[in-house]
Amino acid sequence: MKKILVTGFVPFLHYPINPTEQLAKQIDGERIGEYEVISAVLPVEFASSSAALLRKYEEVSPDAVISLGLAAGRDRITPERIAINCSDGDADNSGVVCRDQTIAEDGPAAYFTTLPYRAMINRLLEHGIPAQISNSAGTYLCNNVMYQMLHRLHQENRQDQVRSGFIHIPASHELALLMKRSVPSFALETLHKALRLMILELSGVSGE
Questions:
Q1: Is 0.70 topped by the overall pTM?
Q2: Which of 89, 146, 168, 192 would staple 140 via disulfide (CB 3.0–4.6 Å)?
């Protein structure tokens, strides 16, 4: 059976919980289509998040990689089209601030996802789950891990064998209740279903 690595992040900034951490833990060990899911939760640190992802990639040797990140304020699930070679963001969980920092000196300006994002979006829409493509993963840790994973695959010339990309998810209801401002939110069960549907699409399996 093929293996898919799914990652989430720990809570960060002013978010007391992170639904991507919950999703990664929930889906670990599931068998979806042709994939067995192996998950990991990454630290929110410029110095160690990508290193943790790449260590897990080396350990698991997956056939596909989906990294998840929280985009509180978005009102739909958004697969990211592109990652850019730049880190710039507020303090991470270690207090480190990045400004205009190149992620990989030997890397190109950007990498495009190799996930079938159009088909994934269509699958979600068919099941009544709002989704659309995003053309910016930002310049914080989400963009960083997406870029680093794709960079490693290109270095190994495995970009055509191992599909990889990043998907932003909205706040969960639980997180929205804890926040001090109003944000769109989804039931965690709906986010879990959406993730399963996208993995099924990647697997080429119809239905749910």
A1: yes
A2: 89
